[in-house]
């Protein structure tokens, strides 16, 4: 029987309009009421994921920054794997040299060096404030992650992942959308976050359903006993899935829960 549903947010339960369908909200409420742990596992900042959890009525810990940070509903840090300062400084130097837009997440706050359309589009609808400053003016400690963005050229972003993976094999680099290159600690993975909470609650892997839509969810799916890819997922993620559900626009999350969870719970 499924005891834990670990889900990505954007493109999985949250539509591209940044709205939840009534069916998704009802489904998650029913899971929670039946004692099934629903955990948000996201690349987002923790502070950006909190309003999502509140809207859904969830009080479980949130796994943010691809698994680099876990905080409970009271804001207590349960798990944290930051990007080493020396690596962060090298990535900043690389971004400046190559004219790459870089988001710097430090102590769960977002900093950028340029106030441009990239950061405006990124923050729109995501409950995020940001500060514009030179990264040289910051104490580069407690870096949650770095995010390199190009909103027009997905192939360029793929190239960044390949280039930086060669140069920094000790880091975790992955595309979280076609236009986002995530850069973090090798221990900041969605699989690590799910495993940490499952161990804390005494839940076995075969009692976990994991579901997502992008390549950063490969690690998420690996942590599940039932691995579900959204219909709008990348082809690579689909290759890791046991089951491919419908798209986010057609409530694929709800359909996966109906198939794999409802059969084992009377009132869901």
Brief account:
Helices cover 32% and strands 23% of the residues. It has 268 residues and is an alpha/beta fold. The strands form 3 sheets. Strands 8-7-6-9-11-10 form a 6-stranded mixed beta sheet, sandwiched between helices.
Structural summary, described in words:
Helix content is 32%, strand content 23%. By secondary structure, the chain is an alpha/beta fold. The chain has two domains: 4-80 and 188-264, Rossmann fold (3-Layer(aba) Sandwich); 85-185, Hypothetical Protein, Haloacid Dehalogenase-like Hydrolase, Chain: A, domain 2 (2-Layer Sandwich), CATH 3.30.1240.10. It has a six-stranded mixed β-sheet with strand order 8-7-6-9-11-10, with helices on both faces. The model has no long low-confidence stretch (mean pLDDT 95).
Which descriptors apply to this entry?
Rossmann fold, 2 domains, Hypothetical Protein, Haloacid Dehalogenase-like Hydrolase, Chain: A, domain 2, five-stranded parallel β-sheet
List the helices and strands and how they pair.
Blueprint lengths: L3 E4 L14 H12 L3 E4 L5 H11 L5 E3 L4 E3 L5 E4 L4 H13 L3 E6 L2 E4 L4 H7 L6 E3 L10 E7 L4 H14 L3 E7 L2 E6 L4 H12 L6 E5 L5 H5 L3 E4 L5 H4 L4 E2 L7 H9 L8
Question: How many structural domains does the protein architecture include?
Answer: 2
CATH topology of the largest domain: Rossmann fold
CATH class of the largest domain: Alpha Beta
Shape assignment: globular
> Could you tell me the radius of gyration in angstroms?
18 Å
């Amino acid at each position: 029987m499924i005891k834990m549903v670990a889900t990505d947010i954007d493109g999985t339960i949250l539509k591209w309009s940044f709205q939840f369908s009534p069916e998704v909200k009802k489904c998650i409420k029913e899971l929670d009421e039946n004692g099934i742990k629903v955990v948000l596992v996201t690349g987002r900042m923790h502070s950006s994921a909190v309003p999502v959890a509140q809207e859904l009525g969830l009080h479980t810990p949130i796994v943010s920054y691809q698994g680099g940070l876990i905080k409970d509903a009271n804001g207590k840090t349960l798990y944290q794997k930051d990007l080493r300062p020396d690596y962060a400084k090298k990535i900043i130097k690389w971004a400046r040299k190559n004219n790459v837009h870089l988001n710097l997440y430090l102590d769960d706050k977002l900093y950028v060096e340029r106030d441009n359309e990239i950061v405006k589009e990124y923050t729109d609808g995501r409950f995020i404030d940001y500060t514009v400053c030179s990264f040289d003016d910051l104490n580069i400690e407690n870096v949650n992650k770095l995010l390199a963005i190009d909103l027009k050229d997905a192939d360029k972003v793929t190239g960044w992942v390949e280039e930086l993976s060669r140069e920094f094999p000790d880091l975790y680099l992955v595309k979280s959308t076609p236009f986002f290159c995530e850069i973090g600690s090798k221990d900041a993975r969605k699989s690590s976050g799910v495993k940490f909470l499952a161990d804390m609650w005494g839940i076995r892997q075969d009692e976990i359903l994991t579901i997502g839509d992008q390549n950063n969810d490969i690690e998420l799916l690996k942590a599940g006993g039932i691995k579900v890819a959204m219909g709008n997922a990348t082809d690579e993620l689909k290759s890791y899935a046991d089951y491919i559900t419908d798209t986010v626009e057609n409530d694929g999350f709800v359909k996966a829960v109906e198939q794999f969870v409802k059969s084992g719970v009377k009132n869901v």
